[in-house]
Amino acid sequence: MGPAKTAPAGGEVKRIKLYAERLGGGQMGYGLEKGKATIPGPLIELNEGDTLHIEFENTMDVPVSLHVHGLDYEISSDGTKQSRSDVEPGGTRTYTWRTHVPGRRADGTWRAGSAGYWHYHDHVVGTEHGTGGIRNGLYGPVIVRRKGDVLPDRTHTIVFNDMTINNRPAHTGPDFEATVGDRVEFVMITHGEYYHTFHLHGHRWADNRTGMLTGPDDPSQVIDNKICGPADSFGFQVIAGEGVGAGAWMYHCHVQSHSDMGMVGLFLVKKPDGTIPGYDPHRHHHGAASGKPEKAEKPAGSEKTEESEEHAH
């Protein structure tokens, strides 16, 4: 294992297209291309100092919007009916999100930077708070990195939405794959009506901005279970199988009735030869219904513009 790759400085101007679409079974999703919406929506990754212009198109038959947590935006990009920043059926709108580095204000107080694990969602479908849109899948992850932050080999998003994970039926995952030694990042978001606890078997993380300790004197608590309520988001990185080896490691809500009702999936950590000790995909009842694990997410927001250089990962 060589030195970890790290995030570069920000300051780029990026542009993406994003579509809101209806999916099967009454679900809805965001996608980077028409006909390719997903739940959760695409990962949007930025570095502190970046600006992102999102050309948003509503392909549905009801008004929809895009509202982000944790980033800077003007009221015209709030994504609410109250601010008249939603999008009518067939309409388009450009939302602009900005990020900033930490620094000292003119009055001497400290202003935190934008770095963190955040998320976006609809704010108008069903009610003026977007209850119907969120319930049906209109949400996705945002990561803002600080210069020098360690970059993962792969990133996965887990959303506890009411009593589902990523809006999937009970006991159908999703499962996530890695090989022993991979640096794996998880983004965890909660939506809906309930509080949950997120627990990952066999792996631990620091309860801080990055999920990693900065050194031996870092006072952050090391945990393997975290309480999460509606609109909470956090993230962390683990080394797959570190100190514990390969295996089908369970993750789940640790509210016992919630896990009993199917809020559970697997972190499938393989040996270098591709095998997973003791794991039979035909016998377990926690993972993807298709038996195929979820793929790692490729972040949006990496396109070139005339105002920016190519984004590095």
Automatic annotation (TrEMBL):
Residues the record lists as binding Cu(2+) 1: 67, 199
Positions contributing to Zn(2+) binding: 128-129, 285
Domain Plastocyanin-like: 38-147, 164-271
Residues the entry annotates as binding Cu(2+) 2: 69, 121, 254
Annotated binding of Cu(2+) 3, by residue: 123, 201, 252
Keyword Oxidoreductase applies: yes
Stretches the record annotates as Disordered: 77-96, 277-313
Record has Zinc as a keyword: yes
Pfam families for the chain: Cu-oxidase_2, Cu-oxidase_3
GO molecular-function term, one example from the UniProt record: hydroquinone:oxygen oxidoreductase activity
EC number(s) from the headed UniProt entry: 1.10.3.2
Keywords from the UniProt entry: Copper, Metal-binding, Oxidoreductase, Zinc
Protein name from the UniProt record: Small laccase, multi-copper oxidase
Phylogenetic placement of the source organism: Bacteria, Bacillati, Actinomycetota, Actinomycetes, Kitasatosporales
First-level EC class: oxidoreductase
Annotated residues for binding of Cu(2+) 5: 284
Residues the entry annotates as binding Cu(2+) 4: 196, 253, 258
Biased composition (Basic and acidic residues): 292-313
